[in-house]
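User: Can you fold this complex?
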Amino acid sequence: MADSDGEFVADDMSDDDIMDHTVTDGDPSAARPKGPKPPRKKRDRNGGSKAWEQSRRTWETDLPEESDGMLNLAGYEAERRRRLLRDTTPLQRGIIRHLVLVLDMSFAMAEKDLLPTRYRLALSYAAAFVREYFEQNPISQLAIVGMRDGVALRVSDMGGNPAEHLERLREYEGQDPSGNPSLQNALEMCRGALFHAPSHGTREVLIIYGALLSSDPGDIHDTINNLVAERIRVSVVGLSAQVAICAELCSRTNVGDDSQYNVAMDETHFKELFLALTTPPVNRTKEQSTSSLLMMGFPSRTLAPGGTTSYCACHSQPCREGYLCTRCGVKVCRLPSECPACGLTLILSTHLARSYHHLFPLRNWVEVPWSEAARSSACFSCQSPFPEPPPPKANKEKGKDEAPAKAPAKGVSESGRYKCQVCDSHFCIDCDVFAHMVVHNCPGCQSRPQAAAAPVTDGVEANGNGHTNGGMMAIDG
Amino acid sequence: MDAVDVSEHYEVTAADNSPSLLSIVLDTNPRAWAALDSSLSLAQAISNILVFVNAHLAFSNANQVAVIAAHVNRAVWLYPALQRTPSSTAPTKDSSGDVQMQDASSEANPPPPPSANKYPQFAQIESSVFSSLQTLMAETTVQDLDQLTTQLSGALTLALCRINKAAQALSSSDTTLSNAAPVNATAPPPVKGRIVVISVSDSDPSQYIPTMNAVFAAAHNQVAIDTIALAGDSTFLQQACFNTNGIFLKAANPRGLLTYLMFGLIPDTEARASLITPTHDTVDFRTACFCHGRVVDTGYVCSVCLSIFCSPPENAECLTCGTVLALGNYGAKPAVLPRKKKKKKKIANGSGREETGSATGTPRP
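Assistant: Here's the predicted assembly.
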């Protein structure tokens, strides 16, 4: 029963299995029953193949060949589609976030089941997380806490500058993980760090937890009660097996939602789970979303007259260009920041614009059957040619043959075309992924005649309000 | 591909030359070009741009070009053009179930015989751009002429999709997968993509969000957006260039378009690191409020949907998302005033603060 990482992604899995397997990630309790640690260790050491001998990227190496020797890329496409197909209902999200990232630095992180070690991997992904977090949430704050030797360790203080956090993280790269982790100590420190977070922002804790134990000074349930009272939400990414207290912690602090506790199966899955939390969280209850009106300044970039330099008020460093506070005229050298003199929040309007795509997400595109495929010969946006539709005569017979073969690859279009339901343009898989993961614009809706585009914009229009889009998107599923 | 030719010098040059994809977004607002006609007509501009394109292609065999027109209400590919003729000939191929061999010249639009004095690729781009522009202008209706803005966001999105596709075609399959998950921001892209916008008209406020989405995507993929503004007020493009480390050139003299292009915008993103590029000293980052469209430098922001207002909305209800907002001590004016008093006090003590600042500063070195 104690299945673990090594055996889970086996070499001989079919594509179908992988899909089933990965789709159930959200519910780790079903996918991974609790396993005591010692037997798992033994297995890794003695039995079977080593972790590095197994192919982790099964969708790359195990592409099934079809009868004519051609590779069947459907599984590969299905994997890519699966990543981007998500719920596009515009939900109210906590855009202004205050998050504490808690990294396990205990003995358990020295394990080598994730390569090179859990500790090194977690640190490098943490750096990626910091970058991505500030890219996605430019007006948010972050702090990093470590768990080592039974105490909580302050890695970096609450702040909005990614460079500072990355610098502090780098200092820990050379050190070795040691001692026991203490969940309670770490949570108490997070509580302190989030105590001053304003009510309109979220208070979140993300724990990367490698150990299966926690050495706590007191009753952790009291801490959990305090967290609930202070509306702090906790998410946990486990690295070994599911732990009951973590599950309880997540479900209690997230209004009974237990999807916030996940256990990583391998490196790719770990990265996916870790970086998934860069997306702003959904506000579930009224208490979670105390909304308020914030006063903010949008200063313009100016150059000191005559090529002179002057000191900025934030770092006391001489600089040529800078931003002048719109209320008191003090010079700051980088945004977003708080005016050091009058306390006004200074941001760029582009920082706000960066978050809009979370609020007005782009609808998923749908697969195009062969029957509709004939009207396009090339991808609308990148002009790469599509496969020709099969001749109409053979269509019926072929359809019978192909239907069962194509069925397992869910979400993959048989014609290689994907359609935006608003503008009816056809796109290739690459543009589909790019549009939904990076641009958050529909190339079709953005470039067709505006008269037709006006009634139903694709949710990214400045005036597009959430309500009409909500109705539109609810159908999408 | 490179492995086919084993000779050493070939490999060295191939390693040095990662291809550069230049996407040109040409603003084709007819009204704006008509206003510019005395100094620079559209035809002259296009011939200048084609010289620029040829210069870019001449740098390296691997270099690629894409030309997109941002028209008043749509964005259209000029090169490579959306093939309309093949789609119409497709049914004729199907009829026999066999591909009928057709000579290229038998199609509706026979290309001119290749000139012996012209590099074929140059001629191909030229004919494609001219023919697609002609169809675009022929499709323009009288109503379209009323608009003062262009479909910039669409053109940028198209250009980005093209660059993304070119990058994926050149990179191995596993990197495309990891690119799909939004990580590795530090790795250099396989294609040096950049977008040059030739702008003649104003920015359309309603396109702010899609344009900005495209700009962030460009910054994410390390694509520089360069702009040469011949006329009009292009605030969004100014911000776009700033965000993507591109060059913003305000052409005081539109007649010299080719000079601006050749001297300012020919280096690709890699060459730029070792050159001194034109800088933008001031960038206008003020925004328009959602309620009146006024340009503001201090505004009120809804914490739920990030709408910007020039004054606290009535009943403290957000006009965009309808949430009732708490007018905390932060946003409401009565709360601001006492702080101002405090600030004045601080200014009175300003000399003291300065001294302390210097006092802590001096002992350090």
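Chain A touches chain B through 95 residues (CB under 8 Å). Chain A has 19 helices and 17 strands.
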